[in-house]
Automatic annotation (TrEMBL):
Transmembrane regions listed in the UniProt entry: none
GO terms for biological process, alphabetical: DNA recombination; DNA replication
The Nuclease SbcCD subunit D C-terminal domain, residue ranges: 267-355
Alphabetical list of InterPro entries matching this protein: Calcineurin-like_PHP, DNA_Repair-Maintenance_Comp, Metallo-depent_PP-like, Mre11_N, SbcD, SbcD_C
Gene source species: Streptomyces uncialis
Name of the protein: Nuclease SbcCD subunit D
Length: 387
């Protein structure tokens, strides 16, 4: 059976205030075309379909369009809710959608009830494990300590128990939305730490032929049978080195796995540039990044004037500007009180300007500071005079 594994669409999410809806629509078109062109027999979406529990209307309309187009192909789709989704909202109408071949799994109590699909070699059982928030599902699974590992372990016990009752040779696929130990994270994933422990070992998924993971945004494999598809689009500059893709998985008649990455269309490349402003503007080696979305970290010892405006003359899609000046380290063992001791308000204000900008105020700016401080003092005197 040929399976297309994707996850973390995050419909409705922006990228540094850039509306990504057109890019998300282009991905959906790419997904549908891949299903048709590569003769996919089942699509699995491992959570975070939306970016938030109550998504904007445009995101809901795109989701609706995606479901209709997948249903029109006659290719079954299995989806689970992620930690960004509202499981209750996403699961509305799941019974009716199932009749159209779109199988939503959002109820933790149903993890041991698979979607059964068949090919020429027999049944494949697809088990959907939606994101399991330990504090909310501990009672469902009867665990004494509600942690990610214990609730996922209990969920997988139900999966293995159901699979053991099925005819010999029944193959199995698990969809799960979790942070599995060994996975590479980015700045884009919402923290799911509970009690200081967020990750679960990959061994918790032993006993099934393929585990289709969602949550981490980088496409990666944690073993031949345990993989993250990653998000189809970038959602932070920490994903600059990601290759955005889906997994095309061939599940053999004996459970053997053959997998291929299918690249996703990305509207622009991401570039993280670092250096002094003049160097970034003049370096010919940076020509390749002129059409990219850029995060620039400036190392000038003094904050340059109009840095963003000057950067965008060469890199018009600069979205983030960070100031990290190359300066000698300050004395760390001197307390804040000692640094201020014996200094006037004027000197303290001038030091603050130097700390923020990298250079102290000029004569005109010192005059502005002095006038502001004099005004504050005068106001204090007026308030203190008895009436």
């Amino acid at each position: 059976m040929r399976i297309l594994h994707t996850s973390d669409w995050h419909l409705g999410r922006t990228f540094h205030r850039v509306n990504m809806l057109d890019a998300q629509a282009a991905f959906i078109t790419h997904l549908v075309e891949t299903v048709r062109a590569r003769e996919v027999e089942a699509v699995v979406v491992s959570g975070d379909i939306y970016d938030r529990a109550v998504p904007p209307l445009a995101a809901v309309e795109l989701y609706d369009d995606a479901l209709h187009r997948l249903a029109d192909l006659g290719v079954p789709t299995v989806m689970i809710s992620g930690n960004h989704d509202s499981a209750r909202r996403l699961g509305v109408g799941s019974g009716l959608l199932g009749l159209a071949g779109v199988h939503l799994r959002t109820d933790p109590a149903s993890v041991g009830t698979p979607v059964l699909l068949s090919d020429d070699h027999g049944d494949v059982a697809f088990y959907g494990l939606p994101y399991l928030e330990p504090a909310l599902v501990g009672d469902v699974f009867g665990v004494e300590r509600a942690r990610h590992e214990t609730v996922l372990g209990a969920a997988m016990d139900r999966v293995r128990a159901d699979l053991a009752r099925r005819p010999a040779g029944t193959r199995s696929v698990v969809l799960a939305h979790a942070f599995v130990t060994g996975g590479r994270t980015s700045d884009s994933e919402r923290d799911i730490t509970v009690g200081g422990v967020a990750s679960v070992p990959a061994q918790v998924f032993d006993g099934v032929d393929y585990t289709a993971l969602g949550h981490l945004h980088g496409s990666q494999r944690l073993g031949e049978r345990v993989r993250y598809s990653g998000s189809p689009l970038p959602y932070s500059f920490s994903e600059a080195d990601h290759r955005k893709s889906m997994w095309l998985v061939d599940l053999g008649p004996d459970g053997a796995i053959a997998a291929e990455r299918v690249d996703c269309p990305v509207p622009r490349a991401l570039a993280r540039l670092r250096g002094r402003l003049a160097d970034l503007l003049d370096d010919p080696l940076l020509t390749a990044h002129e059409d990219a979305w850029v995060e620039a970290t400036l190392t000038d010892p003094v904050r340059p004037d109009d840095a963003m405006a000057r950067l965008t003359t060469r890199f018009p899609h600069t979205l983030a500007l960070v100031f990290a000046p190359d300066r000698p380290p300050r004395e760390r063992d001197v307390s804040y009180a000692r640094r201020l001791s014996g200094r006037t308000d004027q000197e303290i204000a001038e030091d603050f300007v130097a700390h923020v900008r990298g250079a102290g105020p000029d004569a005109r700016e010192r005059t502005v500071l002095r006038d502001a401080l004099d005004t504050v003092r005068a106001d204090d005197i007026v308030r203190e005079v008895p009436r």
